[in-house]
Specification:
Layout: E1 3-12, H1 16-25, E2 36-47, E3 50-59, H2 62-69, H3 72-77, E4 93-98
Antiparallel strand pairs: 1-3, 1-4, 2-3
């Protein structure tokens, strides 16, 4: 069954354009990862000066995702320019899910 990995970010409303641009420009190294299926960056509503973002990736299995997190590609994808101070409120929160139902 497919596996979903989502990283939740709370981004300062004043820095959403810069945050999104960083995602557009970054090399994710996902396309060549065995088992990778799909990626989306989701933007929620602004609440109290903070916008909720979710990086949402779909994998063929939990094992495929876990293998990627232990790969050189993962290290390269997470290497880069430091995040500007104040852009992200707190630490990103990872949530992972096994897909149990697929609607047609």
């Amino acid at each position: 069954m497919p596996y979903i990995a989502m990283n939740n970010f709370r981004v300062s409303a004043e820095q959403t354009e810069q945050f999104e641009e960083r995602w557009r420009k970054r090399r994710s190294f996902l396309q060549d990862a065995p088992g990778f299926e799909h990626f989306q960056l989701l933007r929620g509503d602004e609440q109290e000066g903070v916008v909720h973002y979710v990086s949402h990736s779909t994998w063929s299995s939990k094992d495929a995702f876990m293998d990627w997190t232990h790969s050189d590609s993962f290290v390269q994808a997470h290497r880069g320019e430091p995040i500007p101070k104040g852009m992200i409120q707190g630490h990103p929160q990872l949530e992972c899910f096994d897909v149990v139902n697929i609607a047609d």
